[in-house]
Design brief:
alpha+beta; OB fold (Dihydrolipoamide Acetyltransferase, E2P); 25 helices; 32% helix; disordered C terminus; EC 3.1.13.1; DIS3-like exonuclease 1; RNA-binding
Length: 972
């Protein structure tokens, strides 16, 4: 009801009103707002002397009665209210119109919905306690927030600075930083983020909130911590472990609360007793270190001590040390694989329920008995390439959802034609259909270490839209005519096509053909059953096509390199699957030239589509920008490079690329990999945006050295690509069917959608990284480091801290901290055989090295890029995620019994990591099945949509089970 929405806006404010309207706008909920105040039969004028609340209640009831009669009494209408006077007055007035409280609504209409009843009881109890506490006279723990109008005026005048609060997860109680985003005049003077030191200065702001900050006087500025620090011991960090003073401030108000669902753990029995006798109020500890403890009221605390639980924050008053919240639901047992995966999804606000019946009803039919076929009407309007083009795909082994294919041929005039063919997903996903709305909400396919959650139903992603060999498929093709010698682009066309891929190649086979290795021919299924003469003819055609494509790609890449394109470091893996589609092996992806060939063709298509849609829709095209990084973020990179005698020029992307190419140590290839990884860390993220939201000079993609760029080539797994396909169709085909141009978003709506997609992409990256860390910890958790050689590895130092070093372990792709000073104050000392032990002494940190000196005068120095031997341990935590911990055991490179770890052994270890964890988790789950308590009987179903291997991005983009924040998102 319109009246009810306005009541929420009036009583609860704009934020709650906006949340309500967004829920209604989501087509998946099948809701609309009925403008009852503008309808002649439901409008009621306000009577003289009548209060606003009474008039709103009367208006809503009158509209409910009208709607009941409008539906001819075929279904009851329920008006839910907590106004007891309204219930007494209207409860029995009209048959078929129920006016009841929310509790009665649940009791009468949903008596068996246990989760809803528990949630309501939790909210009601929290509300009562909040009202009770407001009547008590408590002293203030925090300053009051300033009114919104004062904050807005202060930001405009430059007195306050607006930004997003980012809490340091390693010192969550003390350190947070505000990343600038407002319009204050002081921002131009600041060259770094603003430090918020201590809980009182944070003033009840929670990680992710948009806050208003007042800078402190210069003499109160502090430095951020440069020492390694464990969360549980952060208050014990030495006072002399901070860097140079930086802008420091305090939060004076919250502009936007970005609260979400939080995964928490209840205190153990001993901790509960220490909290006091009142067991109704419990302080629960969030899974995320950056979130403060939350006080909730529940009678289930003892029963839920061994479970991950979801809670929501309701409020945080200035008189309370902690925020107040309420219980939502149970996820699973602490330590169980499925429960921990569920926690990762909730923490990243990822909701991936199975596709609904109504969404599946929109899907075309395709089965072994009734396979999907091309519509004759489509043949009339599409460009048919089935008999004129040799089209083939190149993908990782096991890939099923093939959304891109390539072609190259010689034209009658002697020129070349290069083609990139992308699955025509939008033909099957109508704008604003239920499937489209669901895909828009998900925004991307989510890939974890052992599974994926699809953006689209598999009937599309793995069948009808997958460009499989020998199958007729709809595509959107970009075709370029190239000069035969110089490869100069003469013209380009964009077409809706019908294609039939001739080959589904894997990267290794394509590279073999490129290198002249005919031994891989046996792996090409499409050539197996041919006679020798035909096979040799087709093989020659295929080899020519791959070679020509590679030559063209080299030329295109050289042009981008000349403009400053960056090659950033990312460790990728290939997944081998067994017959049951379980992960059998994880093999480090070997760099092949054919990888670059395919990537360069995709980048080319994305670039030209970006130019086309931005020309036709200058104010409402979806593009992708990569802003230049802030120069101060390159400080660590420059310092590390100088330790090896290299100079890194960061003044432009071209200068950076050239200096990174020169920073090679012929004796240690890991050095260049780490430097490129540091360069990646310094980069800002690439983001989607609407062309009407910023000036054209900001369209540039820094990493790719392109003026305009978008994503067009993966519509199966990215919603941004679906939007771009619709824009391209509207721009090039002048379609009238379905009013294509009516499906183009306005600049405002498109920018809002871009923010949503960017947010979901970041969530997907975090979830992928966290699931990788989970598998790493579960793999090492049950191993004995003293006897299991898999826990001993070679490590490379890549950063120096005041009390230790940061180390990269190439064997597992792990990054972690290694302390040189323990909790007892002893320092790491090395013996004559270079083994290490703890002794009294002191540490001295320099720019590129750290020296430990014992009280007896023995000293040892560790420098950047030194190779050392480390022991891999797991630091367990009941309330938080476990973490990998490294311990230096020898000041020398690790030597195995066979001198070197072979590539084969390396990927067997990686296979063990996923396979062993998955198998042990499944066995544990089966053992617990009969004993599982009622409260978690339905926990896991909503999270297990797709428990197969990750057959696209895990194959293409997942990092090598690493803690490297190396994102393909930055590169493309």
């Amino acid at each position: 009801m319109q009246t009810a929405c306005q009541a929420v806006q009036h009583q609860k404010g704009r934020r709650q009103y906006k949340k309500l309207r967004n829920l209604v706008k989501d087509a998946r909920h099948d809701c609309i707002v009925f403008a009852n105040e503008f309808h002649q039969h439901s409008y009621l004028p306000r009577e003289k002397g009548e209060s606003m609340e009474k008039w709103q209640t009367r208006s809503i009831y009158n509209a409910a009665v009208w709607y009941y009669n409008h539906c001819l009494g075929q279904m009851p209408v329920v008006m839910v209210t907590e106004d007891e006077d309204a219930i007494r007055q209207y409860g029995n007035e009209t048959e078929g119109v129920f006016v009841i409280s929310f509790k009665n609504y649940l009791d009468n209409f949903w008596p068996d919905l246990k989760a809803a009843h528990e949630l309501f009881d939790s909210i009601l109890q929290a509300r009562r306690e909040r009202e009770s506490e407001s009547q008590e006279n408590h002293g203030k723990e925090y300053p009051e927030h300033l009114p919104v109008e004062i904050l807005e005026a202060g930001i405009k005048s430059g007195r306050y600075i607006q930004g997003t609060l980012n809490v340091n997860k390693h010192r969550a109680q003390l350190e947070a930083f505000v990343r600038l985003q407002g319009f204050g005049s002081k921002e131009a003077e600041l060259q770094s983020d603003i430090l918020i030191y201590g809980a009182r200065a944070r003033n009840r702001a929670i990680h992710g909130d948009v806050v208003a900050v007042e800078l402190l006087p210069l003499h109160e500025w502090k430095g951020k911590t440069v020492a390694l620090c464990e969360n549980e011991a952060e208050d014990k960090a030495p006072a002399d472990t901070t860097g140079d003073p930086m802008p420091t401030g305090k939060v004076v108000g919250i502009m936007q609360k970005n609260w979400r669902d939080y995964v928490v753990t209840f205190p153990s029995k001993e901790e509960s007793q220490s909290q006091g006798r009142n067991t109704q109020k419990i302080l629960v500890t969030p899974w995320d270190y950056r979130i403060p403890k939350i006080r909730i009221s529940t009678q289930q605390a003892e029963a839920l001590q061994d479970y991950r639980v979801v809670v929501r924050i309701d409020s945080w008053e200035s008189t309370s040390l902690y925020p107040n919240g309420h219980f939502v639901r149970v996820l699973g047992r602490i330590g169980d694989l499925e429960g921990e995966i569920a926690a990762i999804l909730v923490e990243n606000s990822i909701c991936v329920a199975p596709f609904s019946e109504i969404q599946m009803s929109e899907m075309p039919v395709s089965s072994s008995k009734n396979p999907w076929k091309v519509n004759p009407e489509e043949e009339k309007i599409r460009l048919d390439l089935r008999d004129t083009h040799l089209i083939f795909s190149i993908d990782p082994k096991g890939c099923e959802d093939v959304d891109d294919a390539l072609s190259v041929r010689t034209l009658p005039n002697g020129n070349l034609e290069l083609g990139v063919h992308i699955a025509d997903v939008t033909h099957f996903v109508a704008a604003n259909s239920y499937t489209d709305v669901e895909a828009r909400a998900r925004a991307t396919t989510y890939y974890l270490a052992d599974r994926r959650y699809d953006m689209l139903p598999s009937v599309l992603s793995a069948d009808i839209c997958s460009l499989l060999s020998g199958a007729d498929r709809y595509a959107v093709s970009v075709l370029w005519e190239l000069e035969k010698e110089s490869y100069e682009m003469l013209r380009v066309s964009y077409n809706k096509t019908i294609i039939r891929s001739a080959y589904k190649l894997v990267y290794e086979a394509a590279q073999g053909l490129l290198d002249g290795d005919t031994s891989c021919v046996g792996d090409i299924l499409e050539l197996k059953d041919l006679d020798e003469r035909t096979r040799q003819k087709k093989l020659a055609e295929l080899v020519w096509a791959i070679s020509k494509l590679t030559d063209i790609a080299r030329h295109i890449r050289a042009k981008r390199d000349s403009c400053g394109a960056l090659e950033l470091e990312g460790v990728e893996i290939r997944v081998q699957l067994d017959d049951q589609r379980n992960i059998h092996d994880l093999i480090p992806k070997q760099p092949l030239e054919v990888h670059e060939t395919v990537a360069e063709c995709m980048i080319l298509a994305n670039h030209w589509v970006a130019k086309k849609i931005s020309e036709n829709f200058p104010h409402q095209a979806l593009l992708r920008q990569h802003p230049p990084p802030r120069q101060e973020f390159f400080t660590e990179l420059r310092e590390c490079a100088s330790a090896k005698g290299f100079s890194i020029d960061t003044r432009s992307n071209k200068a950076l690329a050239e200096s990174l190419d020169k920073a090679n140590d012929p004796l240690d290839p890991v050095v260049n990999k780490l430097l490129r990884s540091m360069a990646t860390h310094a980069m800002s993220n690439a983001l989607y945006f609407s062309t009407g939201s910023c000036p054209e000079e900001e369209f540039h993609h820094y990493g790719l050295a392109l003026e305009k760029y978008t994503h067009f080539t993966s519509p199966i797994r990215r919603y941004a690509d679906i939007v771009v396909h619709r824009l391209l169709m509207a721009a090039t085909l002048n379609e009238t069917k379905g009013d294509v141009k009516d499906n183009v978003f306005s600049n405002k709506d498109l920018q809002e959608l871009c923010r949503h997609i960017n947010n979901r992409n970041r969530a997907a990256q975090r979830a992928q990284k966290q699931s990788t860390e989970l598998f790493q910890c579960m793999y090492f958790k049950d191993k004995t480091p003293e006897t299991d050689e898999r826990c001993i590895a070679d490590g490379v130092i890549y950063s120096i801290r005041t009390n230790g070093v940061l180390v990269f372990v190439p064997r597992y792709g792990i990054k972690g901290a290694a302390y040189m000073k323990n909790k007892e104050g002893l320092i790491l000392s090395c013996q004559d055989d270079r083994s290490c032990e703890w002794k009294p002494g002191s540490l001295h940190r320099f720019q590129s090295k750290i020296t430990s000196t014992t009280t007896t005068g023995e000293s040892v120095t560790l420098s950047l890029f030194d190779h050392i031997t480390v022991k891999i341990l797991v630091q367990t935590s009941r309330c938080h995620t476990d973490t990998i911990k490294l311990e230096i055991i020898r000041n020398a490179p690790y030597q195995t019994s066979d001198t070197e770890v072979s590539q084969k052994n390396l990927h067997v270890v990686k296979s063990d990591l996923v396979k062993e964890v998955s198998q042990s988790a499944e066995a544990a789950q089966r053992a617990q099945e009969k004993a599982r308590v009622e409260v978690v009987a339905e926990d896991y179903q909503e999270y297990c949509q797709t428990k197969g291997a990750s057959l696209y991005q895990l194959l293409e983009e997942i990092r090598d089970l690493a803690l490297l924040d190396v994102s393909a998102d930055i590169r493309t």
